[in-house]
Amino acid sequence: MAWNFFLSLFDYKTEKYVVAKNKRVGVLYRLIQLSVLGYIIGWVFVSKKGYQETDEAIQSSVITKLKGVSVTNTTESGVDVWGPEDYVIPPQGEAVLFVVTNFLETPNQKLGYCAESPKVLDGLCNNNDDCEKGKIVVAGNGLMSGRCLKKDSNSIGSCEIYGWCPVERKFKPQGPLLANAENFTIYIKNFIFFPKFAFSKSNVLETNDDTYLKKCRYDKELHPYCPIFRLGHITRRAGYNFQDMATFGGSIGILIEWDCDLDKGYSNCSPVYHFTRLDTSVSNKTIALGFNFRHTRYFRNTDGERYRSLFKVYGIRFTILVHGKAGRFSVVPTAINFAAGLALMGAGAFLCDMVLLYLMKKGNSYRQWKFEVPR
Amino acid sequence: MAWNFFLSLFDYKTEKYVVAKNKRVGVLYRLIQLSVLGYIIGWVFVSKKGYQETDEAIQSSVITKLKGVSVTNTTESGVDVWGPEDYVIPPQGEAVLFVVTNFLETPNQKLGYCAESPKVLDGLCNNNDDCEKGKIVVAGNGLMSGRCLKKDSNSIGSCEIYGWCPVERKFKPQGPLLANAENFTIYIKNFIFFPKFAFSKSNVLETNDDTYLKKCRYDKELHPYCPIFRLGHITRRAGYNFQDMATFGGSIGILIEWDCDLDKGYSNCSPVYHFTRLDTSVSNKTIALGFNFRHTRYFRNTDGERYRSLFKVYGIRFTILVHGKAGRFSVVPTAINFAAGLALMGAGAFLCDMVLLYLMKKGNSYRQWKFEVPR
Amino acid sequence: MAWNFFLSLFDYKTEKYVVAKNKRVGVLYRLIQLSVLGYIIGWVFVSKKGYQETDEAIQSSVITKLKGVSVTNTTESGVDVWGPEDYVIPPQGEAVLFVVTNFLETPNQKLGYCAESPKVLDGLCNNNDDCEKGKIVVAGNGLMSGRCLKKDSNSIGSCEIYGWCPVERKFKPQGPLLANAENFTIYIKNFIFFPKFAFSKSNVLETNDDTYLKKCRYDKELHPYCPIFRLGHITRRAGYNFQDMATFGGSIGILIEWDCDLDKGYSNCSPVYHFTRLDTSVSNKTIALGFNFRHTRYFRNTDGERYRSLFKVYGIRFTILVHGKAGRFSVVPTAINFAAGLALMGAGAFLCDMVLLYLMKKGNSYRQWKFEVPR
User: What predicted TM-score, i.e. pTM, was given to this entire model?
Assistant: First the structure.
């Protein structure tokens, strides 16, 4: 019945146009009706699920954990074993984490006097006058002592500074030292909650087999609920080679998308993972390449004197974002969208009047008819 | 006058339907008008405050600070005193913070050779062939030396590795070591700013009594502007027992909601706190329980050799979210909503025409009348 | 032609009103039409770019790096040199970072017995009964030993505690110790990506001159693509004096806004920087002033005994937010907005009918004419 009624919308006004001896506009009106109807049914209701009320205020919690070890051997540090507690910064399983893939250690720095790094422009000098005593080197590593240190009289030297010595040496990475970081695995635990529907779910398989998470790897078909990824797998999915990124570092975004149709039930609400590299711009000739920073470890010797190891670490930062929305049938939106549809038809009819008035020669006769005055 | 005018909307078209000898549709039209009117006044204007322009782009800053001490006594670490600088990770008063409630220390780890942990599947072996020299144990702690260490010939052994030794022992927490973490207090400083209205406020009482924040505790009625909470209070409000969460850890969300009606003045804009546990899913049979991670402290002995303490810490992560919107009367939205109301009435009238055309036997006569042609 | 058609909208119905012998309403209707037209063209299309489809789901990545050194000289710590690796917390170039501008070090703390700080209310005592043995001092630093330490018999003393001794002394900062933090520079690397248009860009100049970033400073006109700022510049732009903020600390928001009209091409999409102080509320009499926290460095002496340095650091937290939206011409929104405009005109006509019916004496004659019945 409601359907028949809906159909009857088509008769409305149409014959008016016919009467008005203008088939074309009749057809136009039909077309408008059809397009409106198509829009309402096809787009609003089927595609956009206009019959559902939705909740986009997703509450989410992300916990990450990395596994894997890497062994490095450098002249400065000797043999070293890197575990997650070392190469994940910060270590506390946040949604944003940095994985060290390359580093330069400057061990046994002590407070004292030494030459500023030649990389620091403001630290270059020709004579002592360029190194004003007590002045701090702009973007440098310490306080000028007033002396200019140079190999020979006619070379460009660099000011002597008071700071943590020796200063970090020049370093252009040749390749990642933690080469096998590619095989590290990241375990992404994600819990979501839709307040409006009191619906909560996690991206981890609900099983009692404790060893499941020790063996499984994510696979879209086989293991959609095993959120454990090889880092190399992630970068490849993002369209980049891990080794290339590992040398200078970079930034990768992991987007977890929950699009839940609660009318279809609990099991049909499952996460989809997207991977994109975040630190790229269309034109590749950029000087803003890579991602690195410095951190320190402080020690004291037997006399209580401080010394430290300065680490310049290169690596990949992973940022995990969670988007999501849930929908469930509700009367209110259905009604509103239906009404909006009707109103749209009204607009259609209105439009046709316009066309009638404007387009056709017989406009006048129609005008007469439409606005005939009481005689 | 505007009101009278509004009322007059009711006369419009009604008599047409009467004229058209169809009371039922007249009634239907009245109903539609009433419902539309009710919708506009009741819903749009009263409930949704359609007369206000709103600002949802809230700018917020959260600063947190914990207080409280806990004393632990374990075989590995001996007696230890934990202050906020130790159990809050990261310590810098972020909106996301982790509070240690349980831990396992593995002190005095040195780089060297020892047996891989039996928990690591890939580290188990029957003979040396299972431990390929120089291969890294998947999800393990080091580099295989090639030897398989086993208690007796017919037991399952584990490969010898080069790494930080001794490796962490098996650990199933029995109960939280920082039991009185329940009594720690968290001070949540929140500042908000609504750019559109240049309105700013904080959730802390504006007083000159410096000792206020040292004595007060949050209470919805007595101290709504004392943002200091007992951790145990928070978990209980979230519906969980602190001690249960403390053993394996978990994740709690603290939502601060600012819903400000600026027409009602400064004092009526006050924060509301909501507490929810974030790491739960409807079905409780999950293997993704708890929240823990590892961090280290590095030391050097007199010979400059490195050794370290490895901490596996369990705890509760608190995530503080700030939502908010402010509204103030403005002409534009009022006008728009009013116009929308009128349009809706138009749609109502349109709908009635439909009904007339379809429902009633006398449809034809009505058609004639409605679309009579110029003779 | 489309334009002529659009114009013809004006004729519609107007003459009806004229016919109905009511110029006033004719004029009213004209006004409504004009305002609607003005609204559609001026507001919807020109100002709000209603002809564009927009993407507001901006994906962004922020990397920060500070440069600058400061030298401090205090009785506790002696001479110390602070580099970014020390005064930036956390050091890993996040979008939220804390810069130390002032600090108090309590070096060589050992686990032992000492007097609780007099700042802790719960630690004050008149006699030993006030210090219940084994009880933890609320908001204090340790475990009560049961003794009350006091200078002389009739003064107020403080309980002896077991904890990290000596406890931190009272500290009201006189001025920032890292005074020249004002001259530190922050380099904000921001990459954005609009998924819908696959458009990506960065806020760093695309050049091959590697030294550019070492020399340039941000300048709205000269160097809009040099995202390197003096901290003092930022606070001033936010409306505050750096030295004032530096003493007790504070919180500053840096908003990067990308409003990209892709119809105008790649180069017209450039970032705009806004700076606001986040931790202020309209009334300045607040006790929630400043921003500080404590962190520690742990050491072990030759006997393996632990001792530590406790740092109470004051500073400024910078929070970098990225907003943005991009728009590009698209048929769909253009059509929808155009249709909406027509519908609005319909509503206008409807409104005029209302007015006709209500306002004028001649209402009845009009009624007759409008709803004349088939004779």
Answer: 0.86
